[in-house]
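I am still getting used to backbone structure tokens and would like to learn alongside you. Label the sequence line and the structure token line clearly, so we can match residues to local backbone shapes. Go ahead whenever you are ready, and we will take it from there:
>
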Amino acid sequence: MTRTGTTTAHLRRALRREVPSTVGLLADEQDFAAMRQYRTFVFDDHATYLRQIEALLRTLANQGGHTTVTLFDPEEYAAWCAETGTDPDHPASRSRFTAHLAITGARVTYTGQPLTTLLPELVDTAVRQATWEYATTVLATAGDCARCGKDIGKAAYARAGRLLLRLLQAAGPGTHHLVCSVQAADDQLLAVLHTHGTTPPIDETAAPEFTAVLATGIALAAPGGVVLRTTTPGAPDRLHGWRLTDGTLTPLTEAEVFAAYCTDARTGEPLSPEPGVEYRAGLPLAPDPDDDWTSHH
């Protein structure tokens, strides 16, 4: 039964607004080229494909439903098809895989933003998810310390959390932008944290991500570092840096901080200093009961 005067078409449109949609997106030319091996994939060039994707997203948004966008990885798709016995050269297979990504993959909500905004956000979300998964796997499988018997992953995460707190306390008031980089195997892990004041935010995912990456460097005894930029009203921004070695953050000198910020990472060529910015040595951190990390882990 329906309400008086309500047409079938109107009901169908109302129901459509309650059905969520997920769009799998081939973000770059390389992924797009990999999909062209399938006969049922009808697009010839990436630019046309992206225009059609954007038109589809606008149509879905105009229908009033909730739409998310996820990265469609051809290699992951081929592996999933092989594992599930699915024919990869069929539109229904791509649809099923996209539904799978809606649960397991990195995704962002489409709110009408152009692809020039959505694509970097989606790639950043995917990188963050991959970094989080790698870091948590390392910490979960690190095992127990042969000397003290403690779970190395848990101990490293706890130590990283204390180091983050000590960094912010040393930096003092202001708006802080922190970047942690760790060289793990063949990957460069990066985590970014924006926060205010002297305590980490407790209601965001960024602080756990930052802590997990720092903890991965501690657990693996991998080389890494932390850089911190502090902004306060009416004063130049201050840049500080620390080197991660043997589970400890050692302050960089002012010259080392300057070199780190004013050198092109690709070419090694010097870069001009940023106006209105002070390059300072890393701040000394308050002592911690676990500062003898390497003696018992």
In short: The first strand starts at residue 21 and ends at 25. The first helix runs from residue 8 to 16. The beta strands are 21-25, 67-71, 107-109, 175-184, 187-196, 224-231, 237-245, 248-251, 277-279. The chain has two domains: 9-112, 152-295.
